[in-house]
Specification:
99 residues, elongated
Length: 99
């Protein structure tokens, strides 16, 4: 179990660094996706080692993966719409969107 939790913590750390250090909207979203994947890996490892005979952990993992896919598709759609409308692909340049 420690290997999976170590993998999850490494993925989360890399994703956090990627989300906080980048200015490109796509790179920030990739960091967020890595962090969500880390949570899914950690949840799957926790489920497998605590109650492998019960299917409710698998259902939660499938729902989390589905929610991640929908969230990333919506995020990339918004990013594409912003880029097409204003030719903006950096977060500093998109700051005028809140006005």
């Amino acid at each position: 179990m420690t290997e999976y939790l170590l993998l999850a913590s490494a993925l989360f750390s890399i994703g956090l660094y990627g989300a906080l250090s980048q200015q490109s909207i796509v790179m920030i979203m990739m960091g967020l996706e890595l962090m969500i994947n880390a949570v899914i890996v950690g949840g799957a490892a926790f489920w497998y080692y605590t109650a492998p005979d019960r299917p409710d952990g698998q259902v939660v993992i499938v729902v989390a993966i589905t929610a991640m896919a929908v969230e990333m598709a919506a995020g990339f759609a918004v990013t594409t719409a912003i880029f097409r409308a204003r030719d903006v692909d950096m977060t500093d340049l998109a700051a005028d969107l809140r006005d």
